[in-house]
Design a protein that fits this description.
Blueprint (H helix, E strand, L loop, with lengths): L2 H7 L3 E3 L4 E10 L2 E11 L4 E6 L5 H21 L4
C-alpha cells in the first residue's frame, strides 16, 4: 500500500490546487453540524496542518484537539508506507 492509497482509504481527497490531501472533520450536536475543521496532509513536505472554523468556546477547543489527534495519527501512519 502507498501513502496515497492509505490516505484515500481514510477518506482524504487529493486537492490538486494545493497539492495535498484534505479531509473535513465535522462535529455534530443534536444531529446538526456545529463545528468544522479541515485537515491537510502534504506529502511533498511531510507536514500536516489544520484550518479550524472560528474558536469561540471550550467545546470548539476540545473538537479542534480531537481533529488534531486524528490528523496526527493518520499522518504518522501514512508515513510508514512508501
Amino acid at each position: 500500500m502507498t501513502k496515497q492509497e492509505y490516505l484515500e482509504s481514510k477518506g482524504y481527497i487529493y486537492n490538486s490546487e494545493e497539492h495535498c490531501y484534505k479531509k473535513v472533520f465535522s462535529f455534530e450536536k443534536d444531529g446538526n453540524i456545529k463545528y468544522l475543521v479541515i485537515g491537510f496532509i502534504d506529502l511533498k513536505y511531510s507536514v500536516f496542518y489544520l484550518y479550524p472554523d472560528s474558536i469561540d468556546n471550550q467545546e470548539d477547543i476540545d473538537n479542534l484537539q480531537i481533529a488534531f489527534n486524528n490528523l496526527k495519527q493518520d499522518f504518522e501512519e501514512c508515513m510508514k508506507y512508501e
